[in-house]
Structures are given as structure tokens and as C-alpha cells.
Amino acid sequence: MIHENPKEWVVVLGSGYSINQLPENLVSWINKCAARIAVNKFGYFYDDTEIIPTDLYFHDNLNSTADFFLRQSIDKLSSLGSIKFYLNVNLKSYVFRSKLSFNLRQLHRIFITNTIRFLRYTIKPIHLSSFNSLKKRLNKKNEFKDIYISSDSTVRFIEIKELFDINNTWGKSYNEILYHFRGSLTTVLNTIAIEYPNYKILMVGVDLNDNRYFFDKKLKSINDKMSVGNDWTTPYMDKEGKHFSAIEMKGVTIFDAIEYCTTNLKSTNNLVYAFPDKNAKIFEQNVNVFKI
User: Fold this and answer.
1) Can you state the angle between helices 184-195 and 255-266, rounded to 10 degrees?
2) 238-248 as b/e, with b when 16 or more CB fall inside 10 Å?
């Protein structure tokens, strides 16, 4: 398959340890593919590999670790030029495509900070409750830092629902809710069906039965210095020796969703492959082995 036309393929770049073991000829082939989608932290650590992403899927921003790697990944990949970003719809009002608009927003943030400082010395001494109320309202305007993404890049905003939500079904466009079941992979596959129909899909680094990342040493160093890196899923992964999405929670794992994903992908002519062999076999008959 490595002799097939790479322009007919999209590659999903997971963060599993097997990324460190990809053959050189496969890496070279991957870098010629139509799209190379970095998933989550791969975007930050991509330069530890020899694979250059063209896209970044990073939906999570619910804790300090996710927020740190989201922003850092956007900054690093933006330096590569035109990138496609797939981000949480909740970020829509915080993402600026114009540098002027972004800078004006930063001036507004400074104004709010200075206003609170002024109120601390004027209103607070005479009316504490009023000060606290005003401070709360003003801080809310500054609670999430804005993100600048050049107009050279493309941004797709994605909405997902809770695991067992009745609306958690396969989306046909970005105007619909996209499918999300126990992990980013399911939504990445739904995204590919919309963005890249008629392309074959190769998954690398999707080591769901292994809890190691290809960047573990660097992640530990960052976590030791900045207390970002590990999150609430880490203890579960350490205990089970698997990716969090492969650990049974609420009676299900991500494997329960793969047949649903691949069935829907067939309707957009997307066949799914994985490398190495073991990463295909964990999905049983739903994912094909990629031969080199």
C-alpha cells in the first residue's frame, strides 16, 4: 500500500508510542499524503517526529492542561503556514482572524484590568458588595484568553454532545453536531467524512491498548516544571495500561463505536486502515491492516 498514490490518503496522527517506531519509508510516504491530521497533543510534540501535520484536531479546553497544549499547538503549527484547525464551537467568540481585531481586544482586556484596579481603591472601601459584583461581571469578560489564527489558515468549529445524548449521532456537516463516543478518534473520523470524503484513511500512533505516548519523557518534564501534562485520566491509564478511551467507563469503550463509525464512513467512500498490524487488529474486522 505504500506504493499507492499518497494524494488519495488522509492520515490520523495519534500520540501512541508506536510513532517512535514508524519505518522511514512510511514516514516519507505519510508526508506526501493529502492531509496529516494531528490529534490533540501531537500538535505540540510533532517536531519530535519527522511528520509535518497539515491539520490539527483539538476540541478539549476544559482544564489547564488541555488549554495549555491547545494554545501551544496552535502557535507551533501556525508557524508552518496554512493549517486547518478543528476547534470547540465554544471558542468561536475568542478566535480572531485579524491581527488588528486581536490587538484591539487585548487593549480592551487591559482596560478591564485597570478598571478593576481603579474600583478597588474607590468603590471597595465604601461599598464592598458593589465592588464584588462589578468585579465579577468585569472578570467574566476576561475569563478566557483570546486566540489569534492567521487568515491564511482555515478554522472549523465543532460541536459535540455528551456520551449518551440522544443527539450524539453522525454529523453530515459542520452545521450539525458531530459524533463523539469515548474519545477524540470518533469525532476525528466524523470530521474526515465531512472534510475529506473519498479519501482512504490511515491511522498511525492510535495505540489504544497501550498507555504510553511517544513524548512521555518531555511530558513529564513539562508536568514537573509547570504542573500541566497529566490530567484526571492519567491514574486510570496508569492502572489499566491502556488509553483512557479503551478503558470501560459507564459500561462502554471506544471499541463499541468503531463499527458505527466505519459503516458511516463507507457512505462517504472512506476506508479505514491502521499501522502497525496490532493497531488494526484491536478493531477486529472494522479496520484494515496497512501493509508496507
Assistant:
1) 0
2) eeeebbbbbbe
Q: Which helix (H) or strand (E) holds 70?
A: helix 64-78
On whether residue 27 sits in a domain, the answer given is yes
- Specify the 3-state DSSP secondary structure of 140: helix
Chain mean position to CA 273: 20
- Pair (73, 214) in one structural domain: yes
Q: What is the pLDDT of residues 117-131, one digit of tens each?
A: 887 888 888 888 887
200 & 115 share domain: no
Residue range 233-264, pLDDT digits in tens: 889 999 999 999 999 999 999 999 999 999 99
In this structure, the answer to whether residues 159 and 15 fall within a common structural domain is yes
pLDDT digits (tens, 9 = 90+) for 133-154: 877 887 776 677 899 999 999 9
Assess if residue 1 is contained within a domain: no
3-state helix, strand, coil in the chain (%, to 5): 45, 15, 40
**Number of domains comprising the chain:** 2
H-helix or E-strand spanning residue 95? strand 95-96
| Sheet strands side by side (includes 272-275) | 154-158, 84-88, 55-58, 35-39, 9-13, 200-204, 272-275, 288-289
Domain that includes residue 178, residue range: 6-92+149-289
Residues 178, 251: one domain? yes
Domain boundary among 133, 148, 163: 148
- Coil, strand or helix: which one is 111? helix
Indicate whether 135 and 163 sit together in one domain: no
Amino acid at 87: L
| 147 or 106: which leads in pLDDT | 147
- Same domain, residue pair 164 and 139: no
Grid coordinates representing 233 are: 485520566
Q: What is the distance between the alpha carbons of residues 215 and 18, in angstroms, rounded to a whole number?
A: 11
DSSP 8-state assignment for residue 213: B
